[in-house]
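Posting this for the archive.
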Amino acid sequence: MPLPDHQNALRSFAADLRARLDFLRECGLQELRRDLALERFLQARPPVRPTTATTNVPPRQPALEAVAMAQSATLEAMRQELVDCQRCSLANSRSRVVFGEGDGRARLLVLGDWPTPAENESGLPFQGETGELLTRMLAAIELPRSAVFCTTLVKCMPAGDQVAVPEEITACQPFLLRQIDLVSPRLILAMGPHASRALLGDHQPFSRLRGRPQPYAAIRPPSGAITVMATYHPAFLLKNPEMKRASWQDLQLARQILDS
Protein backbone atom coordinates (compact mmCIF):
# COMPACT_ATOMS: atom_id res chain seq x y z
CA MET A 1 0.00 0.00 0.00
CA PRO A 2 1.51 3.38 -0.98
CA LEU A 3 2.38 5.72 1.87
CA PRO A 4 0.44 8.99 2.35
CA ASP A 5 2.13 12.06 0.92
CA HIS A 6 3.07 13.43 4.34
CA GLN A 7 4.82 10.19 5.30
CA ASN A 8 6.79 10.21 2.03
CA ALA A 9 7.76 13.82 2.72
CA LEU A 10 8.94 12.92 6.22
CA ARG A 11 11.00 10.01 4.90
CA SER A 12 12.60 12.24 2.29
CA PHE A 13 13.37 14.89 4.92
CA ALA A 14 14.90 12.27 7.23
CA ALA A 15 17.09 10.89 4.42
CA ASP A 16 18.33 14.38 3.52
CA LEU A 17 19.06 15.14 7.18
CA ARG A 18 21.01 11.87 7.62
CA ALA A 19 23.09 12.62 4.50
CA ARG A 20 23.87 16.12 5.77
CA LEU A 21 24.86 14.93 9.25
CA ASP A 22 26.97 12.10 7.80
CA PHE A 23 29.02 14.55 5.77
CA LEU A 24 29.42 16.97 8.68
CA ARG A 25 30.62 14.07 10.86
CA GLU A 26 33.14 13.11 8.16
CA CYS A 27 34.38 16.70 8.26
CA GLY A 28 35.21 16.21 11.94
CA LEU A 29 32.31 18.24 13.38
CA GLN A 30 31.01 16.59 16.54
CA GLU A 31 28.34 19.12 17.51
CA LEU A 32 26.31 21.92 16.01
CA ARG A 33 26.18 25.07 18.08
CA ARG A 34 23.00 27.06 17.72
CA ASP A 35 24.51 30.44 17.00
CA LEU A 36 22.94 33.04 14.72
CA ALA A 37 25.39 32.51 11.85
CA LEU A 38 24.76 28.78 11.81
CA GLU A 39 21.00 29.25 12.04
CA ARG A 40 21.04 31.62 9.08
CA PHE A 41 23.22 29.18 7.14
CA LEU A 42 21.04 26.14 7.83
CA GLN A 43 17.76 27.95 7.21
CA ALA A 44 18.83 29.82 4.08
CA ARG A 45 17.06 29.05 0.83
CA PRO A 46 18.18 30.09 -2.65
CA PRO A 47 16.08 32.91 -4.05
CA VAL A 48 13.47 32.00 -6.65
CA ARG A 49 14.70 32.45 -10.21
CA PRO A 50 12.56 35.12 -11.89
CA THR A 51 10.28 33.80 -14.59
CA THR A 52 10.22 37.03 -16.56
CA ALA A 53 13.04 38.55 -18.55
CA THR A 54 15.60 40.39 -16.45
CA THR A 55 16.07 44.05 -17.32
CA ASN A 56 19.15 46.23 -17.16
CA VAL A 57 21.63 43.38 -17.55
CA PRO A 58 24.78 43.44 -19.67
CA PRO A 59 24.42 42.08 -23.21
CA ARG A 60 25.21 38.44 -23.90
CA GLN A 61 28.90 37.78 -24.46
CA PRO A 62 29.09 34.12 -25.52
CA ALA A 63 32.51 32.80 -26.48
CA LEU A 64 32.75 33.00 -30.27
CA GLU A 65 34.20 29.52 -30.62
CA ALA A 66 31.33 27.98 -28.66
CA VAL A 67 28.76 29.77 -30.81
CA ALA A 68 30.47 28.63 -34.00
CA MET A 69 30.88 25.00 -32.97
CA ALA A 70 27.99 24.24 -30.58
CA GLN A 71 24.83 25.94 -31.80
CA SER A 72 22.28 23.73 -30.01
CA ALA A 73 19.35 25.74 -28.69
CA THR A 74 18.62 23.40 -25.75
CA LEU A 75 20.52 20.97 -23.56
CA GLU A 76 18.57 18.04 -24.99
CA ALA A 77 19.40 19.08 -28.55
CA MET A 78 23.03 19.36 -27.52
CA ARG A 79 22.92 15.91 -25.93
CA GLN A 80 21.74 14.47 -29.24
CA GLU A 81 24.44 16.41 -31.09
CA LEU A 82 27.14 14.81 -28.95
CA VAL A 83 25.93 11.19 -29.09
CA ASP A 84 28.19 10.39 -32.05
CA CYS A 85 30.84 13.07 -31.49
CA GLN A 86 34.06 12.35 -33.44
CA ARG A 87 36.02 15.50 -32.57
CA CYS A 88 38.89 13.62 -30.93
CA SER A 89 40.38 10.14 -30.67
CA LEU A 90 38.39 9.32 -27.51
CA ALA A 91 35.49 8.46 -29.81
CA ASN A 92 37.34 5.22 -30.59
CA SER A 93 37.57 3.99 -26.99
CA ARG A 94 34.58 5.36 -25.08
CA SER A 95 31.43 3.40 -24.28
CA ARG A 96 29.26 6.50 -24.41
CA VAL A 97 29.42 10.26 -24.10
CA VAL A 98 28.89 11.49 -20.52
CA PHE A 99 26.92 14.63 -21.24
CA GLY A 100 25.69 15.63 -17.78
CA GLU A 101 22.54 15.45 -15.70
CA GLY A 102 20.38 17.52 -13.40
CA ASP A 103 18.34 20.71 -13.44
CA GLY A 104 18.86 22.53 -16.73
CA ARG A 105 18.16 25.87 -15.01
CA ALA A 106 20.14 25.18 -11.84
CA ARG A 107 21.76 27.95 -9.83
CA LEU A 108 24.72 25.65 -9.16
CA LEU A 109 26.72 23.81 -11.82
CA VAL A 110 29.16 21.16 -10.55
CA LEU A 111 32.07 20.52 -12.91
CA GLY A 112 34.28 17.44 -12.72
CA ASP A 113 37.25 16.56 -14.90
CA TRP A 114 36.44 13.48 -17.05
CA PRO A 115 34.48 10.24 -16.76
CA THR A 116 35.68 7.26 -14.73
CA PRO A 117 35.07 3.69 -15.95
CA ALA A 118 31.81 3.56 -13.97
CA GLU A 119 30.65 6.82 -15.53
CA ASN A 120 31.77 5.66 -18.97
CA GLU A 121 29.47 2.66 -18.60
CA SER A 122 26.50 4.48 -17.09
CA GLY A 123 26.72 7.63 -19.21
CA LEU A 124 26.22 9.77 -16.06
CA PRO A 125 28.74 11.95 -14.17
CA PHE A 126 29.78 11.48 -10.53
CA GLN A 127 28.87 7.84 -9.97
CA GLY A 128 29.92 5.23 -7.40
CA GLU A 129 31.57 6.29 -4.13
CA THR A 130 32.53 9.64 -5.65
CA GLY A 131 28.91 10.34 -6.53
CA GLU A 132 27.67 9.26 -3.10
CA LEU A 133 30.09 11.66 -1.42
CA LEU A 134 29.08 14.51 -3.74
CA THR A 135 25.42 13.87 -2.89
CA ARG A 136 26.24 14.11 0.84
CA MET A 137 28.27 17.29 0.27
CA LEU A 138 25.34 18.93 -1.49
CA ALA A 139 22.90 17.74 1.15
CA ALA A 140 25.11 19.37 3.79
CA ILE A 141 24.20 22.77 2.30
CA GLU A 142 20.57 21.77 1.75
CA LEU A 143 20.81 21.14 -1.97
CA PRO A 144 19.39 17.89 -3.35
CA ARG A 145 21.42 16.45 -6.21
CA SER A 146 18.43 16.93 -8.52
CA ALA A 147 18.59 20.70 -7.94
CA VAL A 148 22.07 21.12 -9.47
CA PHE A 149 23.52 20.40 -12.90
CA CYS A 150 26.55 18.09 -12.97
CA THR A 151 28.87 17.70 -15.93
CA THR A 152 32.52 17.16 -16.82
CA LEU A 153 35.29 19.09 -18.53
CA VAL A 154 35.85 16.22 -20.99
CA LYS A 155 32.76 14.25 -22.01
CA CYS A 156 34.47 10.92 -22.76
CA MET A 157 36.71 8.74 -20.62
CA PRO A 158 40.39 9.07 -21.63
CA ALA A 159 41.83 5.88 -23.07
CA GLY A 160 43.04 3.53 -20.35
CA ASP A 161 41.42 5.72 -17.68
CA GLN A 162 44.38 8.10 -17.90
CA VAL A 163 44.61 11.89 -17.57
CA ALA A 164 43.05 13.80 -20.48
CA VAL A 165 45.55 15.52 -22.78
CA PRO A 166 45.23 19.21 -23.79
CA GLU A 167 43.91 18.30 -27.26
CA GLU A 168 41.01 16.37 -25.71
CA ILE A 169 40.18 19.21 -23.33
CA THR A 170 40.27 21.69 -26.22
CA ALA A 171 37.98 19.50 -28.34
CA CYS A 172 35.31 19.51 -25.62
CA GLN A 173 35.65 23.16 -24.60
CA PRO A 174 33.03 24.63 -26.98
CA PHE A 175 30.42 22.19 -25.70
CA LEU A 176 31.18 22.97 -22.06
CA LEU A 177 30.90 26.69 -22.78
CA ARG A 178 27.56 26.12 -24.48
CA GLN A 179 26.33 24.03 -21.54
CA ILE A 180 27.22 26.85 -19.16
CA ASP A 181 25.52 29.36 -21.43
CA LEU A 182 22.31 27.29 -21.54
CA VAL A 183 22.18 26.51 -17.81
CA SER A 184 23.21 30.06 -16.80
CA PRO A 185 24.13 29.13 -13.21
CA ARG A 186 24.86 31.60 -10.44
CA LEU A 187 27.89 29.57 -9.35
CA ILE A 188 30.17 26.92 -10.88
CA LEU A 189 31.84 24.62 -8.39
CA ALA A 190 34.96 23.43 -10.22
CA MET A 191 36.03 20.13 -8.67
CA GLY A 192 39.79 19.61 -8.70
CA PRO A 193 42.79 21.26 -10.40
CA HIS A 194 42.08 20.17 -13.99
CA ALA A 195 38.53 21.55 -14.13
CA SER A 196 39.54 24.69 -12.22
CA ARG A 197 42.53 25.61 -14.36
CA ALA A 198 40.73 24.92 -17.63
CA LEU A 199 37.70 26.97 -16.62
CA LEU A 200 39.65 29.91 -15.21
CA GLY A 201 42.56 29.84 -17.65
CA ASP A 202 44.81 30.09 -14.61
CA HIS A 203 47.68 27.66 -14.05
CA GLN A 204 48.61 28.69 -10.53
CA PRO A 205 49.00 25.92 -7.96
CA PHE A 206 45.61 24.54 -7.02
CA SER A 207 46.17 25.58 -3.40
CA ARG A 208 46.01 29.22 -4.57
CA LEU A 209 42.88 28.70 -6.63
CA ARG A 210 40.87 26.69 -4.11
CA GLY A 211 38.21 28.46 -2.09
CA ARG A 212 38.61 31.81 -3.90
CA PRO A 213 35.46 32.94 -5.75
CA GLN A 214 36.35 34.44 -9.12
CA PRO A 215 34.25 35.87 -11.95
CA TYR A 216 33.79 33.66 -14.99
CA ALA A 217 34.95 35.74 -17.94
CA ALA A 218 34.17 33.52 -20.96
CA ILE A 219 30.39 33.91 -20.88
CA ARG A 220 28.02 36.37 -19.22
CA PRO A 221 24.43 35.06 -19.56
CA PRO A 222 21.39 37.36 -19.47
CA SER A 223 20.76 36.34 -15.84
CA GLY A 224 23.98 38.06 -14.75
CA ALA A 225 27.58 37.31 -13.86
CA ILE A 226 28.70 33.77 -13.04
CA THR A 227 31.08 33.04 -10.18
CA VAL A 228 33.57 30.15 -10.28
CA MET A 229 34.98 28.56 -7.16
CA ALA A 230 37.57 25.79 -7.14
CA THR A 231 37.33 23.08 -4.51
CA TYR A 232 38.47 19.51 -3.93
CA HIS A 233 37.11 16.73 -6.11
CA PRO A 234 35.16 14.07 -4.15
CA ALA A 235 37.58 11.41 -5.46
CA PHE A 236 40.45 13.33 -3.82
CA LEU A 237 38.51 13.60 -0.55
CA LEU A 238 37.93 9.84 -0.50
CA LYS A 239 41.71 9.33 -0.59
CA ASN A 240 42.47 12.30 1.70
CA PRO A 241 39.66 12.48 4.27
CA GLU A 242 41.62 14.95 6.39
CA MET A 243 40.82 17.59 3.73
CA LYS A 244 37.05 17.32 4.22
CA ARG A 245 37.09 20.10 6.79
CA ALA A 246 38.55 22.51 4.20
CA SER A 247 35.96 21.25 1.72
CA TRP A 248 33.22 22.06 4.22
CA GLN A 249 34.51 25.64 4.41
CA ASP A 250 34.26 25.86 0.61
CA LEU A 251 30.70 24.53 0.69
CA GLN A 252 29.67 27.11 3.27
CA LEU A 253 31.07 29.87 1.07
CA ALA A 254 29.28 28.38 -1.95
CA ARG A 255 26.00 28.50 -0.07
CA GLN A 256 26.57 32.15 0.83
CA ILE A 257 27.18 32.97 -2.84
CA LEU A 258 24.00 31.18 -3.91
CA ASP A 259 21.99 33.05 -1.27
CA SER A 260 23.46 36.46 -2.08
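The chain has eleven helices and six strands. The beta strands are 101-102, 108-112, 149-152, 187-191, 214-215, 227-231.
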